[in-house]
Design goal:
The protein is of the alpha/beta class and about 525 residues long. Helices cover about 35% and strands about 20% of the residues. It has a 6-stranded mixed sheet with strand order 10-15-14-13-11-12, with helices on both faces. Helix 17 links the parallel strand 21 and strand 22. The longest helix is centred in the middle third of the chain and has 30 residues.
């Protein structure tokens, strides 16, 4: 039936409401105002008890249906007198006759929110508790009411109480067609999200198959943005239901302008990078790639070392750290133009310092994400979704295979492992030069590994020149490659830049050629056996 043939949408009188909610925020005021409008209220269990205790007239659903609640509440609203009252077409003689013949009263307003399944899972509850928090009657009623939104108003979110009350009080106890359509859409989105969360829980925690036959993802709107990657693109942030992973989506914004689409993307990249390190670490990100990463004894030391790698690109960058931001480090940061700062926490004194630059966006997460956590990553392509595990791989010193005549020194080994961790977060082809726990040159996103090697060396030379250094920062550094060197030329370029050791996955058909080139130049090289492509 088209919208043009629908009966007058402006006057659907609400005479009877059914209220059965898990989240009881704002319920008493809402129900009291319904009662004031002369609307009869049907209710169940704890909801009915709360309203009765508040002195609001309520009729128990079990009294209305003539059927008691049973099976520990599993069965209470799955009854023809409930679903008939929600589904009946008020302008259909057969439907009206069926209602009258079976003692079914019309239900004009349904207020239902569902058992807290996601919260139960997040609390660490056992299997049986999670199962018991899968709502059955609630989704059934919501779907019935939403289907029949020509005549029934369905409310699934406490944030919509005021909208409904305003409609009722403005239109003499009636709800408008536009509101009912809007609420029906919200209702189906909510039940779809609810089912998606349950399906995800089963597929990731229960089912044996790594990738289920069908997969769904759900999120809840958090905020709209001025635009997406470019001004002509619209964008919004949705929080993934049931995913408490620390990061920008779940962070608290202390100050600054509203986060943009690009801010969120870059901040996430930066925060995931610093999560790789146990030592105090700082990453400066620009356009999803790091332009400086370092570890240190303190946050201030790590920040200064990270900034030194590429101070020009760091202008207007994103700064992430894996420790509390202290006042001393904050004082250094505000000397430069910064878009976003993200940290697990911030000292009160540091907050006051950053307030001097009130446009800087400052986020706190309360914790760090686990880099080894296995998560599903999703990328949309035309007509489909690519789903893969996150790059949880961790390379340790005992995993390394020395393939050259010379073994790396202890300091070279530390820098090799550091550089390879950074490589994981650099767009491929990725080449990272590192020295003393800091990046000194980064080549990202090139079509040739040789080009990445040369670009990283060039950027390091420019940074050295800006700092007044006599030689390029790559002199005496180590080089890390996210994938194998397909030819010796990339390694040779790194050696010419001053690298003394190299780390790479290995596995090229020309490995022997690359190893020979390393030996000829006195370079120590290790294979990881693990690749870190990032597209």
């Amino acid at each position: 039936m088209s919208e043009q043939t629908i009966r007058d949408p402006r006057a659907v009188k609400v005479k009877r409401a059914l209220i059965s909610v898990s989240n009881k925020d704002g319920l008493e005021n809402f129900a009291r105002r319904l009662d004031k409008l002369g609307i009869e209220i049907l209710s169940t269990g704890g909801t009915a008890s709360l309203l009765k205790n508040a002195g609001i007239p309520v009729r128990d659903v079990s009294d209305y249906t003539g059927f008691p609640e049973m099976m520990d509440g599993r069965l209470k609203t799955l009854h023809p007198r409930i679903h008939g009252g929600l589904l009946a077409l008020r302008d259909d003689e057969n439907h009206v006759g069926a209602m009258e013949g079976n003692g079914i009263l019309p239900i004009d307003l349904l207020v239902v929110n569902l058992y807290p399944f996601v919260q139960t899972v997040q609390s660490g509850a056992d299997y049986e508790a999670c199962i018991e928090n899968i709502d059955i009657g609630g989704p059934a009623m919501i779907r019935a009411a939403a289907k029949n939104h020509r005549f029934v108003t369905v409310v699934t979110d406490v944030q919509d109480y005021d909208l409904v009350l305003r409609d009722l009080e403005t239109h003499d106890g009636c709800t408008t067609w536009n509101l009912r359509k809007r609420l029906a859409a919200n209702a189906y989105s909510m039940t779809a999200t609810y089912d998606s969360n349950i399906a995800s829980w089963f597929s990731t925690r229960i089912a044996s198959e790594e990738f289920p036959r069908r997969i769904s993802f759900s999120g809840t709107w958090q905020q709209s943005m001025r635009y997406g990657e470019n001004p002509h693109q619209k964008a919004a942030l949705y929080k993934v239901d049931g995913n408490p992973r620390p990061g920008p989506a779940n962070a608290s914004q202390i100050q600054g302008k509203e986060m943009s689409y690009n801010n969120f993307a870059d901040t996430d990249a930066a925060f995931e990078l610093v999560a790789e390190f146990g030592e105090p670490a700082v990453a400066i990100i620009k356009h999803a790639n790091p332009c400086g990463v370092a570890i240190g004894e303190t946050m201030l030391e790590a920040y200064r070392k990270a900034l030194k790698c590429d101070p020009v690109s760091a202008f207007g960058g994103i700064i992430a750290m894996n420790r509390r931001l202290d006042a001393e480090t904050a004082s250094e940061i505000v000397k430069k133009f910064v878009e976003v700062i993200i940290a697990p926490s911030i000292e009160a004194e540091a907050i006051e310092i950053i307030k001097r630059k009130d446009k800087i966006r400052v986020l706190t997460t309360g914790a760090m994400p686990d880099p080894a956590e296995r998560r599903r990553l999703v990328k949309q392509i035309a007509g489909g979704l690519l789903v893969q595990e996150s790059d949880f791989g961790q390379v340790r010193s005992e995993d390394l295979q020395v393939v050259t005549e010379r073994e790396p020194t202890k300091q070279e080994l530390r820098d090799l492992l550091f550089g390879f961790k950074v490589c994981k977060h650099v767009k491929s082809n990725a080449i990272v030069y590192a020295k003393n726990g800091a990046t000194v040159g980064i080549g990202a996103g090139q079509m040739s590994r040789l080009d990445s090697s040369k670009i990283a060396a060039t950027k390091a030379a420019e940074a050295a020149n800006e700092a007044g250094e006599a030689v390029s920062l790559t002199k005496g550094s180590v080089v890390a490659s996210d994938a194998f060197f397909p030819f010796a030329d990339g390694l040779i370029a790194a050696a010419e830049a001053g690298a003394t050791a190299a780390i790479q996955p290995g596995g090229s058909m020309r490995d022997e050629e690359v190893i020979k080139a390393a030996d000829e130049r006195g370079i120590a090289m290790v294979f990881t056996g693990m690749r870190h492509f990032r597209h």
